[in-house]
Amino acid sequence: MRVLIADDHPLVRDALARTVRELDAHAEVLQAGDLAGLLQAAQQAEADLAIVDLQMPGMDGLAGLRRLRATVPTLPTVVASGQEDAATIRAVLAAGAMGFIPKSERPEVLLGALRLVRMGGTYVPPRLLDAVEATAAPSAKVAELTPRQLDVLRLLMRGEPNKVIARELGLTEGTVKIHIAAILRTLQSRNRTEAVVRARALGLGESA
């Protein structure tokens, strides 16, 4: 496991590195202190996970996160930040991050969040989840989701990749992609993560 940690405070990076090694004692941890170093390492290191601060030199908040996602779109990214308002969390998830972890959280909470993301899930602090979901604008067209699309959505909410969704539902991956595209349109979402946040806010896809 190779993890990229980007924060301009060495003590924060070291604390995050210790937590990562609790997740995987053999993890290789790479560090960056600004956006330029983050982008360079992300392109060269083939990391399995990135933990990124929004406020460090060159980052410019969400703009830096979007640059990272555009540069290495397949890199699972978690934001660790001191900004804990619902609008910031929703914007982070909409930009493609797979989780948001407040820097004030205890190490064991961070460890659990990283485990969830590593398994393909999306992490939002439980105490902030209601506020995040309350700001997610419901679509007036949710009733248009078909039973099969709801099945796909339920598996998306479990963090399953297209291949697993196809296998569990007896579909081709191409058909799964078509269903996901329809789900994104209906939930007015730009990506899978945003769709999952909105679906949770609407209580969709939760039944077995």
Question: Can you walk me through this structure?
Answer:
This protein folds into 2 domains: 2-131, Rossmann fold; 142-202, Orthogonal Bundle (Arc Repressor Mutant, subunit A), CATH 1.10.10.10. Strand 4 (77-81), helix 4 (86-94) and strand 5 form a beta-alpha-beta unit. With 208 residues, it is an alpha/beta fold. Helices cover 52% and strands 11% of the residues. The chain contains 10 helices and 5 strands. The radius of gyration is 17 Å and the shape is globular. Helix 1 crosses helix 5.
CATH architecture of the largest domain: 3-Layer(aba) Sandwich
What level of helicity do the residues show? 40-55%
Placed side by side, the strands forming the largest sheet appear as 2-1-3-4-5
Mean pLDDT: 84
Question: Care to give the gist of this entry?
Answer:
The chain has 208 residues and is an alpha/beta fold.
Write the layout of secondary structure elements.
Blueprint: E1 2-6, H1 10-23, E2 28-32, H2 35-45, E3 49-52, H3 62-71, E4 77-81, H4 86-94, E5 99-102, H5 107-118, H6 126-134, H7 147-157, H8 162-169, H9 173-186, H10 192-202
Parallel strand pairs: 1-2, 1-3, 3-4, 4-5
Helix pairs in contact: 1-5, 2-3, 4-6, 6-10, 7-9, 8-9
